[in-house]
Amino acid sequence: MKNRSYLDAHIHLWEYCLFQSFTDLSKASSFEEVVEMLKSHPLNGWFAGVRLNQETLVEKTLPDKTFLDKSFGFRPVVIVRTCLHLLIMNTAAMKELNQYSPTGIFLESDVFSLLNLLVTKLQLSPRQIVARGLRELENLGIVRAIDMGMDYFKKGFFDKVDYYTTDFRLLDEALGFKIFLDGGLGARTAALTEEYTDDPGNYGVLNYDDQKLLEIIEKVHHKDKPVAVHAIGDRAVDQFLRVIRKSRHPKDRLEHAQYLRLDQLDALAELKIPVCIQPIFSKEIPWAVKRLGPERMKTAYAWNLMLQKGIPLLAGSDAPVDDPNPEVGARVADALEGNQHLDLEKTLELYSVTNWAFYNWEVEETSTGSRERSG
Using one digit for the tens of pLDDT, what is the confidence trace for 305-319? Predict the structure, then answer.
């Protein structure tokens, strides 16, 4: 493919850099392999694994605290699910970090705070971690990236960074404010109007009521800043649409939107609200159908349908949730048909043209030799 200069409009930059230091469990196929892979890569007396997806394991479930205690004894273990919405620790790790859960499972914002604690506990060098991670991105042609969850702890590790923040103290210098309305489909915490097909009685979780959400959004808009709102399930998108009609900034964004109903697609098109999609997430479709069932999947991961409806699109990877390489994501989405298809060249255009134009930024040149790992 020809060289392009990519802007990743949705990445967790610090976590992407950090995860290069941990054991990648994305190719594990069983609990036994998880244990073997972790034990082969100790880190300062700990075992830390990332990007684990239970759907690739023969057990089809996540290892729990009891299993980790039995397998690792008094040695601390931390595992982060690939979605970044769920983290598991054994008893030894919880004791070391002084953070406790009866099941060893931590969800949503707790995941990010625990990772910050882990960096300090392991005495890692954040500056070295960041430098290595940014080189990896540049090798893929990603010359600029927007972090989607900056806080004071992480900001000091970067000399220069574009970001949305989750900390009001950073709002004045941020591009905008990031709000998590729900969780993810993988962890079954994305908020749905109908129950999970593979977990009857579970409708996921909404993190705010409408009034609280409106208060946050109005506070951000009062600063003349936009919001970037994480909403994966249709119940979360319903809430977003209800509230954003009451307070709007021209640069407000909706993030992910993996499952939408037709009426929601029409509403987003009418309001001209940009949706930042992750083409690489199309890889999830084989297991997402278990969560949503075949009927709801007709309008899930429906990038092509979004385009047909006239919804403005941006593109990001959400790395380290999945591969940050835009060309890999483009090939995945291009291989699909119907509502889920997204033309390869269209995806690359989102990264190399549309994302830049949305922020009125000049396209930056790719540095010499930075494409050695692309494709």
Answer: 999 999 999 999 999
Q: Indicate if 242 and 273 belong to the same structural domain.
A: yes
For residue 371, tell me if it sits in a domain.
Answer: no
Query: Of 143, 133, 129, 132, which Cα lies nearest the Cα of 371?
Result: 143
Please indicate, yes or no, whether residues 336 and 201 belong to a single structural domain of this protein: yes
Report yes or no: 178 and 188 within 8 Å, Cβ to Cβ.
no
CATH number for the domain harbouring residue 330: 3.20.20.140
Q: How many domains, the chain?
A: 2
What's residue 2's pLDDT? 66
- Whether 90 and 220 share a structural domain: no
> What torsion do the CA atoms of 201, 275, 214, 291 make, to the nearest 10 degrees?
10
Give residue 369's pLDDT: 38
- Give pLDDT tens digits for 35-94: 999 999 999 999 999 999 898 899 999 999 999 999 999 999 999 998 788 999 999 999
Low-confidence ranges of the chain (pLDDT < 70): 1-2, 366-375
Do 270 and 307 reside in the same domain of the chain? yes
Q: Residue 177 belongs to what domain range?
A: 144-358
Given CA atoms 323, 328, 331, 334 in this order, what sign does their dihedral have?
positive
